[in-house]
Each structure stands twice: as structure tokens, then as C-alpha cells.
Amino acid sequence: MSFLLKLRRKLPLIIILSFLVILFLSEAGISHILNKSKPKILNYLKNTFAYRFDLERISFSFLLGLHIKGGAIFYDNQSGPPILIKDAFLAIKILPLIFKGTIAIQANINEALFLLNKEKEGINLQVIFSDLYKKMPKVKPKALNLFKYSFGASIKTAKLIYTGNACFEKNMHLLMKNSRIIQGAERFKVDSDIELNYHLSKDTYISRFFKNKGIKEEVGYSIEGNIKGGDLIIDLILLNIGKDQIMGMGISKGFSERNPYIDIAFMNFTISLNNIASMKDNFNAKGDTLFSLKINGPMNNAKINAIGSLHYCDFRYALANGELFDIKNLSGNLEYRDNLLKFDKVNLELNNVPLNAELLTVISDEPVITLKVSLSKDYLSYQNLPLEKLEAIFNGKLKNTLQGDLQINALYLRKGVNFNMRAGLKNIDFDYWGLKEKYFTATAMEITKDNASKIQKLNFSNLKAKVYTGRDRIEIKELNCYGYNAALNGNINLNTGDKTSLIIALEGLGLDVKTVMQDINISDKLLSGAMDIKITFDNQQKEFLKGSCYIKNGTANLQLLADTLKLPALKNVNFDIMDGRFSLSKDTIRVNEIKLANPDMTLNTSWYTNGKIDGALNLKIASGLLSQSLPFKKLLDLTEIKKPYIDFDFSLGGLPKMVRVMWLKGEFKDKIKQDLSAWVKRRIENQLDRMIDEMPSE
Amino acid sequence: MHIKVRYPRGSVLKFIILILIFTNLSCATTQSSLYSEALRDIKSGSIDFAFMKLNNYLQEYPNSTRTPKIKFGIIEYYFQTKNYRNAIRELTKYIIGYPDEKSSVFAQAILYKILLEYKEDSPLIEKLKEAFFSKPIFLVFSDSKTKSYKSIFNNNYKIVDYVNEIEVYKNNELLIEITP
């Protein structure tokens, strides 16, 4: 084959190769020129847009256009560039120009980094966009221009990092993936996937609540809009969260201004918690929610308002120590406005315990919380807790520990009378997250019980306890506090298994009787002494409250007895020991035995009351003491009883506040009845009646 | 011609006093006779007529010293004729209006009985019960204390206070037993 023939055959290849060589040489040449001209380009950009630019490397390709490797835009000279294009191509599409007469500028960004921050003028990226946009050739309809104009962009990955202080953490970023942006003269469209990454460091207490120590959420979104005047009318915002779709619309007024006013609304969308990955991964969340969301205001200070409701949602969170938060059937209304999160009319089952709740939180790094949790009346009744209402209200801050005030309110209905019971704990500090043991302290605790006619209270200080929690149980051990010149200690066990059991055991040694009696307002007859007291509460027992008290070296005011017996010496009786045992059931208060003893007198009484009194009282008084009363001296002489002590036995009846007393048969009474004339007996009875009539109502 | 008739001053005074005395006497007679008529009706067993006359008496002489006794009688009539609606109304007014009357405790007993039988859920029941036991008693030589009252309808009421209960009798028949 001749050379010419061979050449002819290879000509197309040669032409192509030559073309490619020329193309390569041209691209290399242009790229070289561009790189050589980099200072001029940067200077031009700075002069045109009034921003500092930087380009690491720039090259040209006929196919892909300008290739920028390492491009940056600086907001000011003080900080690093908020826009860093790591790898991008900028091209003018030929085909739309030929066939549609459109100048289509296409930017393809492979990798970019955006640092978002709030500046005085607005959000930094928006400020830059605004300034660049205003200095770019204006988009005009074709009628006024020779060509139409369109701008398209694609972003493979762009990381948007918030450099301000996000709530709780700084470490938050958005990753835009596979984005496509098209902007024509009047239309605007974005399609993208976005990934929210909110990493919570282990040092941040809030991270304790998140199993995965953060939030990672992938959302697909699409925005379509029209540019009218200076505004961007957003016809549709479509968010794809898992299988759920959320639709919204809105407006960005003055969208090319430095701080446009945005008004976007997503109305009545339903979203299943199963489709929110962060909720599912961190809290095993299930269930449906219905929400409306509004974002409006200047871009740098846009307010987010959300209102919605949760319907039978489940959450499950287990800790290493076996603690389990198994929340079922959570329903309630949720509202977020001005950093205030309100969650009310909430019903839920926490570890199978049905609760009602209300929550008000100021969202900040240290959320301020008002949480009210109450148990339903039916549940209290089912669990044999003798209460009509039981609620706990916490006011304070959620930090590494819970800090604030805690109030526990209970309503105890007994025989148609309401008793409000409250335990107010001031300045509590509760290490709720301690895995092995959680410490609990409070500077003061006031326990009050009141009804329409009476207020009773107990005050304690420096409360300390260790709390141990596990699945279905809370144990409070080494509970210590101080009050009434004494220390009290105890334990509390709450088990929420099949049948809730609450056992409280408290013990105090050497309490000052005088101040205790003043506060609990049971009797003003005990004037002094040191009291040891033991109380146990067990809701599973029929007699759910049992107690005993032991008073040493005390003084009692027995004015009534002194007046009745005409024995002034009994007005203030010193006693060595007074002890008693009592119990309380749903229907009955039982005082098993109260003994008071001193050398001149022994008093022994027991009674029970279920609205009425039924009891007995035995009084043994030294004859010597009785002889100090003139009437009794006469009676003793009349009966000729010569015993060192005289026994008086009484039956007690009536109502607790109005006790009826009947003197029972005995040697002394029988002899008096036998020896006294009828009129003397009547006179004695009349005198007693008069005395009773004159008695104060208490 | 103008004729002036002069009456001696003393005669005029005497005349006025006489008129006043006669008027008063006639009033007293009417008041007393109305009451006596009612009593006669009670004695003859015409309690309906007695009731009407007692009512008439109360309208004519609302401030009479007999008023509490008659009002209790009217209550008894309502109770006897099972007109409980009116009985409850009158009893409530009576207990509030005459708390210190001897019959007041028996009015309470009748009201308590009516409420127990016909308005079991009334909150008044507990209040009445408390009122019965609102005073402590001290039984020294006997095991009870008794108070009695005879009504205009000649019913004998008796209340017996024991240490743990109260019994109310009407004509020696147990009307009601009250425990605290």
C-alpha cells in the first residue's frame, strides 16, 4: 500500500488527533494565560464586587468551561473566607445559545464549604449574595434583550457550617448533596438532598439524652418560585422526610437584599416519628404527629413558630444501669413560639404508669423548665393510694443536674373533708444522670397539710439523699434532714411493677415537742419534751400509715382534768415518759395506746375513729393528790377508800372534736353512787354540764 | 252664728284611754280565741282545721310569743301529712330562726329523718349529724341524758344522749337513732 493511500485512510484519525492537540494546546494556552492573569482577575473581581477573592488554580476546558480549584470569597479582612469552592466548573452552554437563544451559565460545584454566621447587616452568606447579585448583569426578559439569560448550578457536596453559637453546641452543619439550582429571568428552582449533622460532644450534658450523641437527619427538598420585582414568591417547598412529604409556601421579600424578610408556612402536615431518623435512632420513636410551622421575620432574626400535636406516640430509652424510660401512648399539644416550648394536655404511660403532664421550657443552653406531672385519680385508686390527686411541679433549670424548686401536691379526701397536702422543696440539686447513684439535695423542705379549718406543717432543712433507679423502681436511701433540734433519716422505695408499691420509712430522734406541736397544730397540750418518732407508710397495707412516738421528760397541760377534778396541780403535769402508737387506714384512725406516767398519775388511753370516736381512758391518780381537791377529799372521806391510787375508767364516744365521756363502773364510782343523795348527784352533774358549756369549742 | 262647744280636758283624755283599752281587749280576745280554736281542733282530731287556724294566727300575729311553738306545729303537720317538700323548707327556716328553742333539736331530728329517707345524698345529713354531736357530754352517774318537749299537737318528744349514740322518740316510739 502506498504511503498516500495509508495517509488517506488515517486522515480522519490524524485530523482528530490534530484537532485534539490543537484543542489541548489551546486549553493549555488559555489556562496558562488565565493563571498568569490571576492577579488581574482577582483585582477585577475585587473592583467589581468590592469583595476580596482568591483563586488557587484556574484552568480552561472547552468541554467543561472554567475549572476553579480552590476559590474563596472573603467577607472582611479579619476572618477566613465564608465561601470556599474547592472544585468547580463554570461554563456557558452552547446548545441553548444556538437553539433557544439563551445564554445559559452553568456552575458545577463538586465540593464547597460555606461558613454561616450572623453579622450586623444580616447573615454573612446572604450579604455576600446580595452584593454580588446587585453587581451582576441584570436578568431581563428577551423582549428587551437580544438573548434570554439563565443560570444553572449543581452542587455535588457543599458543607454549610454554622459558626455562631447554636443551642447547646457549636458543632452543627448541613451537608447539601446532589443539588440542582436553575434560575431563569423569572423562575427559580432548587432540588437537593440535605443532611443535618448536629454532633453533641460527650462533655455536653444534653448529649446524655441522645443514644447516638447527636442528630443526623437526611431530607430531600425541592423549592420552586417566581421572581417578581424584588421578591421571590415561593410557590412550593417540598420536604421529603422518609416516606412523609411536607409542603409549604411563602415569600422572600427583597430576596436580593442583605437581610430579606422571609415568610414561609407549612400548614397541617402529618409526619410519622418512624420517618424521622434521629428520633427513631435515639429514642425508638413511633407514632404520628400533626404540625403547622411558620418561619417569618428578617432572615437574620426569623422567628420560628410551630403548633401541633402528638398522637399515641411511643418512645423507648434504656440506660446502661437498667434504667428504662418506656413511654407509650404519648398524646398532647405542642407549641413553640419565641424560644418557648409549651407541651400541654399531655397524656402518657411512663413505664406503664399513666401520667398527665404539662411542660413549659425556655429553650437555651440551660433550659428553664416548668414541668407538672400528675397521676390520674383512677390510677391512684387502683394502686390503693388514699389520694384524690397527686402531682409534682418542678421549676428550675436543666443542667448537668436538675436545679430548682420542687413541689409535690396531694389531695387527700377523708370523710368528705378535703386535705391539701404539699411538700415544697427549695433549691433542689438532683444528679439525675448518675448511673450508679444519684445524689439529691435541697436546702429546705416544708410539708403542709390543710383543710378549711386547720393548717399543719413541718419544716426541715439540709435535705440529702442518694437515689438509685432501675427498671420499674426508685429507691431513695440515706435520706437525711434536720429540724426541730434533731436529725431525721429514712428511706423511700417506689416500685412501679404490676402493682405500684410505695414504702416510706422515717425516723427522728429527740425532736423538740414544743415547736413540733406548734407546727403540726394537733394539740397545744404538750408543752415540752424530746420526742422520738418512727413513721412507716406502705400503700399496699390496709393500715397504710403506722407510727409510734416516745416523749421523754415532758410537760403536758391537763387544764380540763385540773378543772374537772378541782386539782390545779394537774394544770401542768411533768411526766417521765409518754408513748403512743397510731395507725391510719382508709376509714379509720387508730390510736393504739397513749401512756403518760409520773409518780402522781398514770394516764392510759386508746381509741379509734372513722369519723366517730370509740375508745377508753384509764386514769390512775394518787389519793394524796386527789385529797388536794376539796370535793374529792369529801368524796374520799365518804367512801372511806384508803388506797394509794384511785382508778377512773371512762368510755369515749362522739366526734373527735366533741368527745363524749362516760364514767364507767368502778369501786370509787359505785360507792359514791351508793352514798350520795340524788340531789347531790344531780348537783354534781349540773356543775359538770355548766363547766362543759363554758368550755371553748376545741 | 258660731257656736263653740267646750269639752273639759280631763274628759277627752278619759275617752281616748277607754277607747284604747277596749280596742286592745278586743284584739287580745281575738288572738286568744283564734289560738284556743286551733287547740280545740287539735283536741278533737281536726288537724287540718287546726293547721289552717294556726297559719291564720301566724299571719295575723307574726310576732307573738307563741310563734315558735306554732311554727313547730305547722312543721309537724307537714311531716304527718307527708308533705316533705314544705316540711324541709319550714324545718330549715325553723332551725336557723330558732336555734335556742327547746324544740330546735327535735326539728333537726325530723329534718334528719326526712333527708335520710328521701334525700340520701344531701350534704345536709352530715352537717345535721355533726350538729347533734356538737357538744361534749360527761355522763357521771347515769349512762344517758334526756331532754323532752311537748308540741302544740300534744306530741311528746324525747331525746336521749348516750356516749355513742342519740335516740329521738316521739310519743315513746323511736323516731330516729343517730350515731356519730
Verbal overview:
The complex is a heterodimer of chains A (698) and B (180). With 698 residues, chain A is an alpha+beta fold. Chain A has a domain at 590-698. Chain A has twelve helices and 33 strands. Chain A has a 33-stranded mixed β-sheet. In chain A, a hairpin with a 5-residue loop joins strand 13 and strand 14. In chain A, helix 1 packs across helix 2 (38-49). Chain B is of the alpha+beta class and 180 residues long. Chain B has six helices and five strands; from the N terminus they run ααααααβββββ. Chains A and B meet through strand 32, strand 33, helix 11 and helix 12 of A and strand 1 of B.
* Whole-number mean pLDDT of chain B: 83
Spans of chain A of at least 5 consecutive residues whose pLDDT stays below 50 are none
Number of helices of chain A: 12
Helix segment count of chain B?
Answer: 6
Give the helix level of chain B as a range of percent: 55-70%
Strand line-up across the major sheet of chain B: 2-3-4-5
Greatest interface and its residue counts? A-B, 28 and 21 residues
Number of strands of chain A: 33
For the structure shown, list the relevant keywords.
heterodimer, A: 698 residues, alpha+beta, 33-stranded mixed sheet, 12 helices, B: 180 residues, 4-stranded antiparallel sheet, 5 strands, 14% strand, globular
